[in-house]
Amino acid sequence: KKYFLMQLYSSSVLTKMNRTQKNKATAHHLGLLKARLAKLRRELITPKGGSGGGTGEGFDVAKTGDARVGFVGFPSVGKSTLLSNLAGVYSEVAAYEFTTLTTVPGVIRYKGAKIQLLDLPGIIEGAKDGKGRGRQVIAVARTCNLILIVLDVLKPLVHKKLIEHELEGFGIRLNKQPPNIGFKKKDKGGINFTATCAQSELDAETVKTILAEYKIHNADITLRSDATADDLIDVVEGNRVYIPCIYVLNKIDQISIEELDIIYKVPHCVPISAHHRWNFDDLLEKMWDYLRLVRIYTKPKGQLPDYTSPVVLPDGRTAVEDFCLKIHKNLIKEFKYALVWGSSVKHNPQKVGKDHILEDEDVIQLVKK
To answer: What string of DSSP letters covers 161-193?
Structure first.
């Protein structure tokens, strides 16, 4: 009953927002409504306590490999066919909707990295409000390093907008950077608002209103870019994930060459045919670019480097210390220095410490104490 009432209230807030004219005078009111909506959505996603039915069969998939890629899309757009042809995994395929009812994992090896592929069940409109298996599907999508939105090339835009809307409602931001906003709570001193550049939407009054909705009355806010009310809410909520995304347009065997040329110009898009296995190499290459993984080859003393099985590190965590921790957590205690060959050093080999940042395809030799 409570769940139904919350949904009813959130839809009334949405109606209010749609009816409000957008201008400087109403920015303040709109900011308040947006904050209210964000709070309601968070409560809908994470129900408080209680031993309500488990997580649902097949949804908590163990993370294996160096990266995780999730296939998201409406039922019957060819996600399962794509996965089985890419990874050789059998995910039940049929010509009717909702064939896949649980998460089906598969693993591919590409450029020495093990990439886990997840075929998530079809998302339906209203998934973010708990319809279908949507809530569990999107919870798994939040843990992915890359999301592939699989679309039917004959009706791509309708599906794209709906899926993006569902994922946005769950705090997943696609192909975006976190907002450049400094936010720090304090015990006293009120709201201290600073903007280092001109703002088109937010002013001190609107910021105070949004923070008051979250019962925050003492904080330092620094806007380092032209931010919107949604950006500020994202920072205050603090549970947003920023994930790169590729739009995979399937079933290109049903369109003309001229249409294909137009599709190729769309950013973040890869046209394929899962059934005929067309353009898979292009898709894999784009996946590799978006995952931004770094391969490090090991070199035992007095031997040639081992180019067959690299140690793969995620982007942003590529220091020598991260490399040691990836192999074994005790290795860093015995670490003295490392010898590195490759593009991250000026001389080959170069003696480096644990803070040295490694680059793709560097060769490393560890020297223990």
So the answer is: HHHHHHHHHTTEEES-PPP-EEEEE-SSS-EEE
